[in-house]
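Notes on consecutive records. When two proteins share a document, each keeps its own sequence and its own token line. Never mix them. Below: protein one.
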Amino acid sequence: MHLFSHNPLNDVKFLEKELDMWYFQILKNGWEKFARTIKAENKDVKKALAKQISGLKVSEKDVDEVLTKLKFSHDPATWSDDDLLQLASILRKRTKPMIIAANKIDIEGSDFFLHKLKDEYKEYKIIACSADSELALREAAKGKLIEYIPGDNYFKIIGNLNEKQKNALDYIKKNVLDKHGSTGVQEVLNYAVFDLLEYITIFPGGVNKLSDSKGNILPDCFLMEPGSKAIDFAFKLHTDIGNNFVKAMNVKTKQAVGKDYLLKNRDVVEIMVKK
């Protein structure tokens, strides 16, 4: 494929439009009946609308703040399709945050489009990526040819490489790792999970023992949604553990905490259950 035969900026525009239209169609479906009901029953339009589109994980607070900003009429029956599309677009941006993985950064001349993306879409986090390079490095590590940790900016050769493998790894080192600091793949995943979604990491462990039978320290880790409590973690481990929850122990502080204890990132938690 010729470098300039495809413009990735168009991909972003297409995706934004598709997502906006998805929200719009959900809003538009049954809108006239919805608007009549609001007026006839004198309902709070913000609460009713939030309930109507709750499946999109749009909260009442989201709707309240967006409608306050837009200053639409209090009568939703007067809202035009353009109004609904504007509402859909703003709600989409608010509730479906995006990150742009600028893939194929290993191709010669791709920096041109990377800079164009960053100039055009300043509101998004844009990370240079090479998925092919990441796959090649992981396969090489799996085959005991190199030592490589996803996200690192280097690898160590530990096996016997043929000429083709050497050239491929040299290319990745020169055009991806040395130039961009990593393949970008792990950075995209980390940013999406920890920055956009704000998930936290929780480790199951004991007050008196942090290792497993093989001596591995805190070998397990769970991703939890922001606002998760001790009881949520108990159910994450197993339904029976959640149902028989008595208390939890914050292993770092060695303090007992109740089911409503708000978990913090990198907490080590032990769950006590009924016997």
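Protein two starts on the next line and is unrelated to protein one.
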Amino acid sequence: MLLDPRGPRFAAAVTTVVLAAALIAGSLALVLTQAVVFAVTAASPRLGPYTLAYRALVAPRLDPPAEREPAAPVRFAQLVGLAFMLLAAVGHLAGLPALALTATAAALAAAFLNAAFDFCLGCEAYLALRRLTGRPVPARVPTGPA
């Protein structure tokens, strides 16, 4: 499955806002909500809540993408985000605010890198792991002339 790379970047922008709010408010509810978003998007990148918003509200106003990206790196990045949100939730529930703050801040930093600079840390980690195992995959695939 190939994705419009602008969709995950839009999702990262929304995630940045949600996680910044979670940090400011110290909100377990926002952490858990974002965990659900990460889980749904990891299961099916095309059905993620932020992806659906992108496809309904943003994509119709844009030209078709010049290139697409494989879904596997995006799924991996979403699983990494989910792991950090689960750590943050454990921190909240166990009365370990440093763990909650650190895990949320790490996920926020990764989301911000993607949103602001089009650098998906989780995707790059996935691609590096694939190269290390001798099974590289392309980061982006040209769509050809429109």
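For the record: The longest strand covers residues 67-70.
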